[in-house]
Amino acid sequence: SNKKKVRTYLWPTGIGLEQSTKAPTSILFDSRQKFHSFGYQAEDTYTRLPDDHQKQWYYFKRFKMTLFKNENLNEMTRIKDVTGREMRAMNVFSAGIKYLRDHFHEMLQERSIFEEEDIQWVLTVPAIWNDAAKQFMRKAAVKAGINGDRLTLALEPEAAALYCKSNIRQGMFPIGHTFMIVDSGGGTVDVTAHKVHLSDKLQEVLPPSGGPWGGTKVDDAFQTFLVKVFGLAAIRKMSKAENLQIEREFEIVKRSFNPEAAMGMSPVNIWIPYCLRESLGRTAGIQQPIKIRGDKMSIPHQTFASFFDVPVQKIVNHVRELIAKPEVASADAIYLVGGLSDSKLLQAAMIEAFPHIQVHIPVEATSAVLKGAVIFGHDSDIIGWRMATSTYGTKGVVEFDHGRHPINQLTLIEGIEYCSDVFSKFITVGTTMRNGQATPYKSFSPVCKNQAIMPIRVIASPSENLTYTTDPGCRALGTISVRMPDLTGGTNRAVKVRMILGGTELKVEAVDENTGLTYAASFDCF
Fold this sequence. Notes:
Elements: E1 11-12, E2 19-20, E3 26-29, E4 35-38, H1 39-48, H2 51-56, E5 58-61, E6 78-80, E7 86-88, H3 89-111, E8 121-125, H4 131-143, E9 151-155, H5 156-167, E10 178-184, E11 189-196, E12 202-211, H6 216-230, H7 232-237, H8 240-256, E13 268-271, H9 274-279, E14 291-293, E15 296-299, H10 301-306, H11 309-323, E16 333-337, H12 344-353, E17 358-360, H13 368-378, E18 383-387, E19 391-399, E20 410-413, E21 416-427, E22 432-434, E23 442-444, E24 453-461, E25 475-483, E26 495-502, E27 505-512, E28 518-524
Parallel strand pairs: 8-9, 10-16, 12-18, 16-17
Antiparallel strand pairs: 1-2, 3-4, 3-5, 6-7, 10-11, 11-12, 13-15, 14-15, 18-22, 19-21, 19-24, 20-21, 23-26, 24-25, 26-27, 27-28
């Protein structure tokens, strides 16, 4: 099949006949926490609910950002909706994924007969998310009814890199070519750097980095502006339907705003409701001349451009820091993808900041992640080398050394002194690993003669060097339980363990040396 042939669904936006390839991450549940609607439909339904229903229902906006840098994320984590009411994050995310899965099934059934086992699912996640967030998304997808064996996680900037490499004209990605991807989405910005290898596979040369500087920062600046102009009291008088209409009007203007086309002179016009127009005369406002023309607010061109200042400057500064690193000194191209890549302000700022590097905006840059994910689903091995985003190892015990180990780590097992919570390192953060590469085996023995199960506890840490699993930043990824029913050898039995990089997953294998049985588990880490 042609992996470049990707069809996208067009969502009705609720403004005239306008459609979009993307739907907002908005989701609505009823008072019993039962899923009701997603995307534009959720937005429209929520605004039409009577006030008493709005207080009882659950409405989440931009909920994907709740996973960013949440170090304590687990299946019981709760998140707040727009009114402060809480639901389990797992239920919110799995309901959203299930809606998209079911919608996709409906689209397929209208066109052809298919079997579920024919579908390979690819779920994209920001590269800068931590391991816990990636694992969480996999669990949410499985809870939504997706077969875990048919599910691959793709890092968003990696998917974008594959799209660019596949769709840019031939000769733009020669062997040895180093390029950067700046994926500026709605919430986060992911930046990666890759090098084209002899095998035509891509090697990651810098670990993914970035921050919460996406297009929603432009929205936040606009909302702050409205409060300054009209006052908080007037803003709170708006109905939810009026607020939604302003948000959607702003989104359209934001995407089409071109500072060059208007020569910095023409103001930007946005619809506002009567309650705001009425309040303008009663507020001091701000220095710029804000004018009302009919039912529209006229915003000076430079004022509108200032809404982009924070994310644009954050992105430029971050890329500048990365380019100073020796690993990307030879980079001669930057590809802007994601929703904010359409911004002429961001494009101009990047071109001005990096005159010695070609800045490219590929065709359909806003869909680069989606279309690249399809390519990744066909061939996940095309990213041949990745850099470990954490240090990975296992938790265990060793015989206690009074001259070396802290006394608070001392534990007594069957009359023998052990040091508990000892970290055994397999992979160091920043290490470049080939896809499919395995670490050397390490052997571990049970500490009890009658121990029939040995737990292999997998640990991750952002630190390069650590001694104990109680050190700051350590977090448990999961446990493999190795059954050892033959107790003949007592504590002289052994289990050998290794770690293998496969795609975006870290696979951990544990082998009972007596029986030869292999136990394995995979963790979404890279």
